[in-house]
Design brief:
By secondary structure, the chain is of the alpha/beta class. It contains 23 helices and ten strands. A six-stranded parallel sheet has the order 1-10-7-4-2-3, sandwiched between helices. Strands 8-5-6-9 form a four-stranded mixed sheet.
Length: 457
């Protein structure tokens, strides 16, 4: 068993039995669900909007090479520089090079899952560059030494008392500070970082091919400060974030806001097309966009599963997933958790090491139901399972178990073999440490339904 599998089982076992953890998670997800219901009311025909959005992403992903080169051409005309990174290491090397050329000592970062994917903060620390998260949720997690817990809400698992503890331990604030007071403390600390940082780093929610622009969405304004003050702006973006045209935003902005946070539209929507031009008084002097592959073309090569690249990272599938609600985000041991993480991670980081994530699902289909891009997530999980079996990435014990089950299911007499005491013995022997650890084991009756039916007839 690989380390990632053992870590997953260990963390999942702890969190699924932690009632306080579940209470916090369900409370925050409940607030999200209430907001989304209100956000959906802006639509006259929501299903039509979702289908049109999926069609746009289908067009974009099926012509990915064309639109990415179009973006590069237009962005370069605007004075920016496009860098291509096949792996996370390639992206880090490019960032190291930019830091060295500009003698950078401090980086401010807006919220970005792709920077978490390449472990940028840890990489910058190795070369003596301070990296500061400026999104409030990410800032809380950075202070507490934890990775983001959720794609959209990094500190979803923390109550206001937990945040007060983090601020008390790391910033010296009183434990009875209110959320508003803690926010003001964070604002004061971060404002000084913006004005003294050498480089601002962001991700991008979308890449716009026809204008050579990136789009950054936020609700706090920290990303705008991250890109306005430092002389250099680096945007690190997964290649799947491409959209053919700026005109597609009329469709995608409300969808992402509705399913991400329940808003009609995000508060700050910034289209950035390059460094500042002549006559402009703010903005970076240099701007780089790093287009990251890091396993995405592995998924692109799978005709049945490539639709997972349509994901706009709204996080709605996480909030709907009964498994995520029980084990939380950190149990997955990956950057992207929940149903979408379980689908894409085996392709990004290797099926052998992460195939178990595709089995961490009830296959209830709720993730597919709530996806604004109509991605068939529960079917993609099944396809991943199929591929894992085809590639022989299953244990001999599992193969024997399924072979025995198949034989038993095909022969009624074998299913009826043995007394109820014998069956209960096997149930205790093989399921006591797994299912029985937190549940009462089912008990077989003295007579099966088949036996009672025969007696009655």
């Amino acid at each position: 068993m690989s380390d990632s599998v053992e870590t997953f089982f260990d963390k999942a076992a702890v969190k699924s039995a932690d009632k306080e953890h579940r209470r916090k998670l369900l409370f925050n997800i409940g607030k999200y669900n209430e907001s989304v219901v209100k956000g959906k009311q802006q639509y006259d025909n929501l299903e039509l909007a979702k289908q049109r959005a999926k069609n746009v992403k289908w067009k974009a992903i099926d012509n990915l090479d064309k639109y990415l080169t179009e973006f590069e051409s237009n962005f370069t005309k605007n004075g920016g520089t496009v860098l291509w990174a096949e792996t996370a290491d390639d992206a880090i090397k490019e960032i190291y090079k930019i830091c060295k050329e500009n003698d950078a000592r401090m980086v401010v970062k807006s919220k970005s899952m792709v920077t978490e994917e390449i472990h940028l903060n840890e990489a910058l620390k190795k070369i003596g560059v301070e990296s500061v998260e400026t999104d409030l949720g990410e800032y809380i997690q950075q202070l507490d030494g934890e990775a983001p817990y959720h794609i959209v809400t990094p500190a979803m698992h923390k109550s206001k008392e937990d945040v007060a503890r983090v601020f008390n331990e790391h910033l010296g604030t009183p434990l009875d500070y209110t959320p508003s007071q803690m926010t003001m403390v964070a604002r004061e600390k971060l404002r000084a970082k913006y004005t003294s940082a050498d480089i601002g780093v962001t991700g991008a929610n979308f890449i716009l091919a026809d204008t050579g622009s990136i789009l950054v969405l936020e609700n706090e304004g920290n990303a705008r400060l991250t890109t306005a003050f430092p002389k250099i702006h680096i945007a690190i973006v997964g290649i799947e974030k491409i959209l053919p045209s700026v005109h597609d935003l009329a469709l995608f902005l409300p969808l992402l806001a509705t399913y991400g946070t329940g808003q009609k539209v995000t508060v700050y929507n910034s289209i950035i097309s390059g460094p500042k031009q002549n006559g402009e008084i703010d903005g970076p002097e240099k701007m780089y966009v790093i287009l990251l592959d890091n396993g995405r073309t592995n998924l692109l090569a799978q005709p049945e599963q490539r639709e997972a690249l349509y994901c706009i990272r709204c996080g709605s599938c996480l909030n709907a997933c009964p498994v995520y609600k029980n084990i939380g985000g950190h149990a997955y041991g990956t950057t992207y958790s929940g149903p979408i993480g379980s689908v894409i991670t085996p392709h990004f980081k290797g099926m052998e090491e992460f195939k178990h994530l595709s089995f961490a699902s009830s296959l209830c289909g709720n993730c597919t139901e709530v996806c604004p891009m109509k991605i068939n997530l529960h079917e993609l999980l099944l396809l991943n399972r199929r591929d894992a079996v085809k590639e022989g990435l299953v244990s001999s014990q599992e193969k024997i178990g399924w072979a025995a089950w198949k034989i038993g299911m095909k022969h009624r007499k074998l299913m009826d073999t043995g007394s109820s005491n014998l069956r209960n013995f096997f149930m205790k022997k093989y399921f006591k440490e797994s299912w029985g650890k937190f549940h009462d084991l089912p008990k077989f009756p003295k007579k099966s339904f088949n036996e009672m039916w025969r007696e009655k007839k």
